[in-house]
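#structure-requests
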Amino acid sequence: MSTRSRFLPTILLILGFAWSGSLTVQAAEEKEAPDITPWEHLVVPGAADFEDPFAMLDSNELYLLAELASLRELRDTSTLTHQQNDTLASIEAKLTGQGVDIDGLMARRWEIAEMRRAAAVDPNPGIDGTDISLNGFAVPAPRLNDGRTLFYLSPEAGVFIDLPPPTQNQLVRVIFDGIPENLYLYQPLKVNGRIEIERTDQKMWIFGGEVSVVSAYTLVADSIEGVGFITHTNH
């Protein structure tokens, strides 16, 4: 990645805070915006509150544990070669010497995998159909067929380019009637409206590459702060 592309999100972020201070657009029916909703409220309460023993391992230990798991599974279905048996014994000795509880981790790996999945994917039913206010960074998308504006809101700038894609419950699909004057990538926004649980998966081009944008929520916005809108669609 070039130096220019690596620093682009930071430059856009600085420009966004400089230009977007007082721009606000509201739908025809005025609503008092609710208090800012923390992004962690979009996760099922308690889903991320578990002890993850794999988080204590470094990258090399995780790699060795994965290789060990693969060799053990192969041993259960076929006969290992002499070299594979030596490799298995070597990995077991090395991890044990480093204080890794191999059998304990192997016994819990699917349980921990499901806990991680729930924390990353499952939406919070407690906020379904409620009015919320979110601060975040825009990922523009093509307009809907009826002309309404569509973009995604993330708690971090740099996603899909400098950072990995957000988890499904940390990415919100936003729909609004207005047409933005200039909505750019990672523009900081405050979005007010009603949020609903709705899983969507959309292929988009972001900075020259196709990505899969998966969200667990759709938010129909009543008002957006941080960008001007020139008109409203009729649909």
